[in-house]
Design a protein that fits this description.
Blueprint (H helix, E strand, L loop, with lengths): L2 E3 L5 H4 L8 H4 L1 H16 L15 H11 L5 E5 L6 H10 L17 E5 L4 H6 L9 E6 L6 H17 L2 H4 E5 L5 H9 L2 E4 L13 H8 L5 H14 L6 H14 L4 E6 L5 H15 L7 E4 L10 H6 L4 E8 L16 H4 L6 H18 L4 E6 L4 H22 L7 H13 L6 H8 L9
């Protein structure tokens, strides 16, 4: 069972930088108020992501298609960006071999390689053609609105390639709004297979919908177990003393204390994608109205050698959350060699498992001794069930923190203007006013 340990966040353990150990009792009324609001929003459909673990009308179709597709495709290319790709990418990285795409088909159990096209850099777009055979590639086009410029540009590019070399009807699946949007209209007119994103589920909260389930199911991941883990966490969160609410409340309390840099620090290479996914979730949901935390991802032990100096000795504006794992799955031993060299000899006979856990604990103790707030999520292992728990926990924590802050955690007004300006610059006729704004923009140029 996933555990949230906040021992090193209370003042008894880290001194004046911490929060009072009775913070839970002090804030019980606020927690109850937030819990009531969340339950009301779940009931009225505002928080649609909370229903995803329990309501999946397309689940059997997803599993059947995934089973039928095994050994059929050499590659899957996901055309999506932000919430349309980060969740599936995180699940894939967490549950598959670290060099999955380099394994042969037999070692991948017949499942295809996967590539995420989440940028419009022309080198990336052109470069993918050098490593995949279009005829043997399945494309998943993912955009809830069906209007995402980056996804649509990728769609147009690869659709042309498939028309020349393959069969678009067999090779393209569209995941979008069930009723509206250009991708839905194109799917109807062209006959593309589709899956739906529930209208009341925002992109960054959509990983447990078809947005995340379709790509990972096609890679052989147990999506039933993923959803079961989310269901288990939802059950735990029926009372107010749960990991999601406590994580949210603590982050909020530290935000009030000026700790506006929130670091997610997994000590498992497999979970780096989860930190990436959380970073978008936290940033787009909570960065509002001139306030909000800045989420930062770090990787243990790699970033002990790049960021830890700042965390230990820099401005006291950070709260750190480790993700630790009890069972890494493999035991890898360090050989005994150079016994006459003490700087090497002490390592021999230990495992890399012991080493990474020692480094995490050493970092935790050092931060605690320095009075730097740090908590941790503890995972028994990394499997689909545990990942489902963690995903639901962080999603619920995010909306909870938004409600503590008094903001809407579902919208993203800060990115909409840039989207409109992009469409204007690319010639979208409905954005002439935005184009005029750009053309008439006056600024002082300063260049070197």
């Amino acid at each position: 069972m996933l555990v949230y340990d906040y021992s090193n966040l209370i003042e008894e353990n880290i001194g004046k930088e911490g929060i009072s150990s009775n913070f839970l009792e002090t804030n019980k009324g606020l927690l109850q108020e937030i819990d009531n609001e969340i339950k009301a929003k779940r009931q009225d459909g505002s928080f649609g992501f909370m229903e995803l673990p329990f309501h999946q009308p397309e689940l059997n179709e997803i599993k059947k298609m995934a089973s039928d597709a095994r050994k059929k495709w050499e590659n899957i290319i996901v055309l999506g960006i932000g919430g349309s790709s980060l969740g599936a990418m995180a699940i894939h990285q967490a549950l598959h071999h670290p060099f999955y795409n380099l394994l042969n088909a037999e070692k991948r159990n017949g499942y295809p390689r996967i590539f995420f096209m989440d940028n419009v850099d022309p080198e990336l777009v052109q470069g993918i053609l050098d490593v995949v055979d279009i005829k043997h590639t399945l494309f998943l086009v993912i955009s809830k609105s069906g209007k995402t410029a980056e996804t649509l540009s990728h769609f147009l590019f690869f659709l042309e390639k498939v028309r020349k070399q393959g069969d678009p009807i067999k090779q393209i699946i569209i995941i979008t709004d069930p009723e509206k949007g250009p991708l839905r209209e194109i799917a109807r007119s062209e006959g593309f297979l589709t899956f739906s994103v529930p209208p009341n589920v925002g992109g960054r909260y959509s990983v447990l919908s078809a947005v995340g389930l379709v790509p990972v199911a096609f890679l052989g991941i147990d999506i039933d177990a993923l959803l079961a883990g989310a269901q288990a966490m939802a059950k735990r969160c029926e009372t107010i003393e749960n990991p999601a609410y406590l994580f949210a409340l603590i982050q909020f309390l530290f935000l009030q204390k000026g700790k506006n840099i929130h670091v997610m620090f997994p000590y498992a290479q497999a979970l780096l994608g989860m930190a990436d996914w959380w970073r978008q979730l936290w940033a787009e949901s909570l960065g509002k109205e001139g306030n909000g935390p800045t989420p930062v991802k770090a990787l243990g032990v790699t970033d002990q050698h790049s960021q830890l100096q700042l965390y230990m000795d820099g401005p006291r504006d950070k709260i750190i959350t480790f993700i630790t794992v009890k069972d890494y799955g493999n035991d890898v031993f360090i050989p005994h060699s150079f016994k006459d060299f003490p700087d090497l000899a002490y390592l021999g006979g230990h495992t890399f498992n012991e080493l990474i856990q020692a480094e995490q604990l050493a970092t935790e103790v050092a931060l605690t001794k320095a009075g730097c707030p740090n908590g941790k999520f503890v995972l028994d292992n990394i499997d689909a069930f545990t990942l489902g728990e963690f995903i639901y926990c962080l999603e619920l924590a995010t909306v909870s923190c938004g409600l503590f802050m008094g903001i809407n955690p579902l919208n993203q007004p800060g990115v909409e203007l840039g989207k409109r300006y992009t469409r204007a610059l690319m010639g979208e006729p409905h954005f002439q006013e935005e184009k005029r704004e750009i053309e008439t923009l006056k600024c002082v140029h300063a260049k070197v």
